[in-house]
């Protein structure tokens, strides 16, 4: 009987801690997404300026590669590593491949022409910043998901102990 | 750096409107693999819901994509498909778009987290 009460206490304490963690992770996630939004807005306004200089159709999805384009590798990739904070799930880190390391990598600014306005380079930097924030948001999101799963498991355990 | 050459980098895919896709592809996430499959989809007003759903499901199945960035307004259109995706990989991140600022109340993961604080479930 005393053992059951002790178990219940332990479960409740852990539940409290995890619930507080979940709340702060939710806040962190929202802040990171707002950072992504700000970086994207900055990038989009530079894209708009570049479009104003180069013409409506020069900075649009017409410049993007399609299925008929030659194959090429991504410049920005994510590398996963195991993280104890995430209860064993992976955490990600963004890496930008340098041109000299991999021949099949091309700078995307080239798709828009050889002499492009500086705005396009500024836009590229802003979107790369947005990518960094996005990868951080993914890590926080994974942590939040795992915390929610743990909370649900503990609630089930608590219900089982209370039913005895 | 030596550690990363042993581990293969995974891709970030994008499902978004024109500006979102142009922007992130400018950032360098785009790739066309040897099967001629892109890792992005530009969604405009003429894109069918089924096309968005099929693309999302294809990206989920690919093992070289670990993160899917999707505009929140497009995520609303295929909400039922996203809510059914429970595995942590690939991670689905809902991002705002130029015309639709971020709305935390529509975010899938935050809605699920908020549901935990339902008074009926708080024992």
Quickly list its features:
heterodimer; A: 164 residues; mainly alpha; Helix Hairpins; 2 helices; 2 strands; elongated; B: 123 residues; alpha/beta; 4-stranded parallel beta sheet; 17% strand; globular
Number of domain modules of chain A: 1
Percent helix of chain B, as a range, is 25-40%
* Percent of residues in helices of chain A: 55-70%
Q: What is the tally of beta strands of chain B? A: 4
Low-confidence stretches of chain A: none
Task: Give structural notes.
The complex is a heterodimer of chains A (about 160) and B (about 120). Chain A is mainly α and about 160 residues long. Chain A contains two helices and two strands, in the order H-E-E-H. The longest helix of chain A has about 55 residues. Chain A has a two-stranded antiparallel ribbon. In chain A, a hairpin with a 7-residue loop joins strand 1 and strand 2. Chain A is elongated and about 80 Å long. In chain A, helix 1 runs antiparallel to helix 2. Chain A has a single domain, classed as Helix Hairpins (Orthogonal Bundle), CATH 1.10.287. Chain A starts with a helix and ends with a helix. Chain B is of the alpha/beta class and about 120 residues long. In chain B, about 40% of the residues lie in helices and about 15% in strands. A four-stranded parallel β-sheet of chain B has the order 2-1-3-4, sandwiched between helices. In chain B, helix 2 links the parallel strand 1 and strand 2. Chain B is globular, with a radius of gyration of 16 Å. The interface between A and B is large, with 69 and 52 residues. Chain A: This is Vacuolar ATPase assembly protein VMA22. Chain A: It holds the Pfam family Vma22_CCDC115. Chain A: InterPro entries: Vma22/CCDC115. Chain A: GO terms for molecular function: unfolded protein binding. Chain A: It comes from Rhamnusium bicolor. Chain B: One of its GO terms (cellular component) is proton-transporting V-type ATPase, V1 domain.
